[in-house]
Design brief:
mainly beta; Pectate Lyase C-like; globular
Length: 335
């Protein structure tokens, strides 16, 4: 038993199990597990604070949609079973998102999502017919933790309405596809609205067809985007043209209070870039302890204040000195 104590009203969390070989009449027990979608529909037995273990094997009946609802104090945990490898294959006769995370306060932890279909090109820039985005992280307080996402049309999209969503410790690689105009599909596509930060911490992204972190919107908001400890390199290279490893900015709304701390980016041959503010600009950025190597740094801000200038100057300095590193200010790595 996991044995996690969550509150006075529930002494002990309960554990349930799913399996890619489960029978339709499964009960969620270790010996008679549920199908994955059954568990994601939150049977009445599943309560806040419980854990759903994913047994090893390939789950190949997408698309899946999570309706699980935990609480901020007692999240529901969906996690790979210890010592096994749980994998979700998004290859089916359609290109809807492989795992659509709705609900609230559910943490998805430690498993893999990929797509086995070989098609990586479309003539019009739309998703390939059998390859969709791996995850839509759309629920309030939902999290991705220590996952592996690869070979999908896009790693994760988290919209502005997903308040308090977090992406932590996840590896994204080889996501996206090619088209006549450019490479499409990013590691992380993110938006955020309001005072609650959207935390993107300690992830590794490399060689997407599109961008690494693409915090962008043509009408969506980009408030309080918090990027810390991420490693992003060589994104766009699979399509033959390097794109931004980190971009925070939109075309309509100013990016308010973005925070970039202790991130590392690199692009071979100096052809990549990072972009803070993009078109509409940014206000009150915090930029410190980053290592932006072998590429360009672009910063856009609508009203140059001293505080903005300091952040801009630091970003430019880091970009111009690929083997320099800003002085370390103590950073908490445990979340």
């Amino acid at each position: 038993m996991l044995g996690l104590l969550y509150g006075a009203d529930r002494v002990l969390a309960t554990e349930f199990y799913v399996s890619p070989t489960a029978a339709a009449n499964g009960t969620g027990s270790l010996n008679n597990p549920w199908k994955l979608q059954t568990a994601l529909d939150q049977p009445s037995a599943v309560q806040p604070g419980d854990t759903i273990w994913l047994r090893g094997g390939i789950y190949n009946a997408p698309p899946y949609t999570s309706h699980l609802v935990g609480t901020s104090a007692e999240p529901i945990i969906v996690r790979q079973y210890p010592g096994e490898r749980a994998r979700i294959d998004g290859n089916y006769n359609g290109n809807e998102v492989t795992l659509n995370i709705l609900g609230k306060y559910t943490w998805f932890w430690g498993f893999e999502i990929f797509n086995s279909d070989p098609t990586r090109w479309t003539p019009d820039g739309s998703f390939p017919p059998r390859r969709g985005t791996a995850i839509h992280l759309s629920g309030d307080g939902t999290r991705m933790i220590n996952m592996v996402i690869h070979d999908t049309s896009q790693g994760v999209l988290t919209p502005e309405t997903a308040s308090g969503a977090r992406i932590y410790g996840t590896v994204f690689y080889y996501n996206g596809f090619d088209a006549p105009d450019r490479g499409h599909g990013h590691g992380i596509y993110a938006q955020n609205v309001g005072a609650t930060t959207k935390e993107i911490y300690d992830n590794i992204m490399f060689q997407q067809f599109g961008w690494g972190i693409h915090a962008y919107g043509e009408g969506g908001h980009l408030d309080n985007m918090d990027l810390e400890g991420n490693v992003s390199f060589d994104n766009g290279g699979l399509a033959g043209a390097y794109h931004a490893n980190i971009l925070v900015g939109g075309t309509a709304n100013v990016a308010h209070r973005p925070r970039l701390v202790a991130n590392y980016t690199y692009t071979r041959d100096g052809k990549g870039k990072n972009d803070l503010g993009y078109s509409a600009g940014c206000t009150d950025p915090v930029v410190m302890d980053n290592y932006f190597a072998n590429g360009r740094a672009l910063v856009h801000w609508p009203e140059p204040t001293f505080r903005n200038f300091v952040a801009v100057a630091l970003l430019a300095l880091l970009a111009s000195r690929p083997h320099s590193h800003a002085h370390k200010a103590g950073r908490a790595t445990q979340r």
